[in-house]
Amino acid sequence: MATGAPPPTAFPSDGVDVALRDGGVVHIREVTPEDVGPLTALLHALDPDERRLRFFTAGVNLERMARYAADVAGRDGAGLVAEGDGVLLGHAEFIRVDAETAEVAFETAPAAQGRGLATVLLAHLAQMATHWGITTFTASVLPENHHMIDVFRASGFAVTVQTHPGELVLEFPCEMTPEARGRFEERERRAAVEAMRGLLAPASVAVVGASARPGSVGATVWGNLVDSGFTGALHPVNRHGGELDGYAVAKSVLELDPVPELGVVVVPADAVLDVVDQCAEAGIMRLLIVSAGFAEGDARGAARQDELMHRCRSAGIRVVGPNALGLINTDPQVALNASVTPVPPAPGGIGVLSQSAGMGLALMERARTTGLGLSTFVSVGNKADISGNDVLQYWEDDPRTEVALLYLQSFGNPRKFARIARRVGRTKPILAVKGGRTPPRVDAEASSTGALLAGSDITVDTLCRQVGVIRAGSLDEVLDVARLMTDTHLPAGPRVAIVTNSRGPALVCADACADSGLEVPPLEDGTRERLLRHVAEGAAVENPVDLFASAGPREIRHAVAVLADSDEIDAVIAIVSPSLAASAVDAAEAIAAGAADADAEVPIIAAFPATAAPPDELRAGPARIASFTFPESGARALGRAARYAQWRARPVEPPATVHADADVAAAVIARALGAGGGWLEPADTERLCAAYGLPLAPGDVVDTPEDATRAAERLGFPVALKAVAGAPPTQADLSLLALGLDSAAGVMAAAARIQARAAAEGVDHTRLLVQRMVPAGVRMLVGVVGDPQFGPLLVCGAGGVEAELVRDVAVRLTPVSRADVHAMVRELRTFPRLDGYRGAPKADVAALEDVLVRVGAMAEAHPEIAEMDCNPVIVSPTGAAIVDVRIRVAPARPVAPLPSVGGA
């Protein structure tokens, strides 16, 4: 390792849960000396030929090998074990050979072979090794050990093979290549799909706690399963036995043969753990736990949930819940309703996930009453295991699900959610309602950047915007967007034509379009001429197009067709109030016919503000038309759909890369952490900025007014002078700052004044930063705040002393692409100041974007940067210069190096 580099980063202390390709779960953690017994058992489970291939001899002393493996730290190495089904299923280790090379070996139990465990262990081990400064793995294998060779090759690492007498020596780099990471993410995706398939499309279901007692949860769940016409086998289980609806009731799942694929648990909370043990013994690997009394309650319930998940993880069981409302799949080939919902949803194209039972019921009821159909419904309850990430990946493969709708109260793994949602959203819209608009838990102390984010919900908004998730503020709004997404096409742009027979609703609609980021542009002459051919004389054919109350079905049909076919329009909103000339039914038929007449496929929205519900005749023709009672609802939904379509049309751009000396940066941070962390000294801040090529204005830190004068002469006048006491000052305290000093006498006087003012405020000794003045320009803020869940947040905004007053910021989660920072700068309200506002010279925006890219790369590479504040960054026509910067470091929480179970 490089001198001063940080010590090897530990694997997450509590380990990680990883899904295998068959949907089962194993727990991976670092090996400990207490693992000698389980490791011995693992080695004994290998057949003699496997032991010979592993150790080059069948006569190896397995107990001694187990002791060596458990004491890997004493041999300058690291090891991991995988637990599942109550035993160790795998072990992998590396031992350092030299400064940059280590030898790797692993073994997996027969029960775990073929499930992808070996490659998962290898990848996690490789990621650990990189923190040790190890760049290369080697492995010696017998020529006939094809399985081990296949594992190395299947991992995606670039393996080279050298032939030696009696053995092959494999060598490959530890660094995870994009190909290797892609393979592991694909394995994760397949595992999630397989886990969800067993939950949403099981071949057989056992209901543990099934009951005939009216009103009980057990009776409701069982009755819904029977009434839904579930196409698989049903098994009621109750300790009292007997018969239920013609089914023999088993007293325990251990009596069932064959073993059910899904177990639905509806027993009291204090009986759940025993049921889980029985399910594990029987081999039921998927559970829906409806029972409440866990982490949603008190500390006792939380402890019970911890024990529940410990037992499920040990057995490799995947769980929905506890405290879940249930699972529904409306596919007639499955017909699963394992829920307590009083009225099942109609079949349709919307997949719904809810973290709240109450909100889940409300979503289904509102969907039912407004005519929306569901493909599947998943209530994750306390989200102890199965999460939105798993369900999203199932929906990605499900042809019946057109739109994903999430109600979330928390994010378990936002960065994993971002990766999955970004991929899924390219083909299927993801809608979200996030409950609990609480401030983000940013790790910020006293910077302008932290202050700008405090008390806002900007973190979740940023996540959704970056990955294309459509975030709505209410159930009605999210269902409006879902209706539009399932009933019509995505708009190609923001241009909307409004046609109506009543001007008032059209004006309200136009306002709603403007508020939603849509345009209602004037129509070109050719379009107006085509409209006038079949409308009443005097009709207003601007935009909105007002056909007047006298317009009949023919005029409405013609106007809709002309507008839909116009190249200058991306969507049409038709607003009709019943009149003597056209009833609601007549108008609906006319809109449907006009949509069918049009050659272009643009979204067409119909609104009937004076009618209780849009007429069914809207769906009479082949065209897809989204209908709403009020046009404002349609306009808001269309605005969100247009932004989503714009996001989906953008090419996928990888994170920006920069040339940086990451080792120097790591060394600076390691030394600071060794000294207790906190705000970096100016010299360390300068070294860290230099390592990433950040344009810090030249300067020197000195102790006395005389030293300040000499520094100013070295740097060249004019200079700025600032106090340095503890954390470097911001421009919030102008009394400790002097600008534009152009003489030695001026520097001497200003330095004495600043130190005297600091002394009056109780600072015994104030050092001084002398900085060369940079060209005049626009003052901007660039910063980073670390979020313990979301990771680094990159911030750009209006800077200077007014930063917290103006509060004009754009935020992105790292890593960022160059397209991300390009968009960040331009979404600021104050961007015109950079772009030559009122004749001012245009600033070098590209230079500002480069600063953002470099700061983002540094924050992503070094999660120990808890807070960074560059304020101001002065952007002139000739470049950008960071005038004030301060950086705070703190220990970073170890993170799983590869995809793990859990998430949103």
Automatic annotation (TrEMBL):
Residues of the N-acetyltransferase domain: 26-175
Major enzyme class: transferase
SUPFAM superfamilies per record: Acyl-CoA N-acyltransferases (Nat) (SSF55729), Glutathione synthetase ATP-binding domain-like (SSF56059), NAD(P)-binding Rossmann-fold domains (SSF51735), Succinyl-CoA synthetase domains (SSF52210)
EC numbers, comma separated: 2.3.1.-
Domain ATP-grasp: 686-891
Keyword Acyltransferase part of the UniProt annotation: yes
InterPro entries reported in the protein's UniProt record: Acyl_CoA_acyltransferase (IPR016181), ATP-grasp (IPR011761), ATP_grasp_subdomain_1 (IPR013815), CoA-bd (IPR003781), GNAT_dom (IPR000182), NAD(P)-bd_dom_sf (IPR036291), Succ_CoA_lig_flav_dom (IPR032875), Succinyl-CoA_synth-like (IPR016102)
CDD domains: NAT_SF
Pfam families listed in its UniProt record: Acetyltransf_1, ATP-grasp_5, CoA_binding_2, Succ_CoA_lig
Lineage: superkingdom: Bacteria
Molecular function as annotated in GO: acyltransferase activity
UniProt-listed PANTHER family: COA BINDING DOMAIN CONTAINING PROTEIN, PEPTIDYL-LYSINE N-ACETYLTRANSFERASE PATZ
Protein name: GNAT family N-acetyltransferase
Organism of origin: Svornostia abyssi
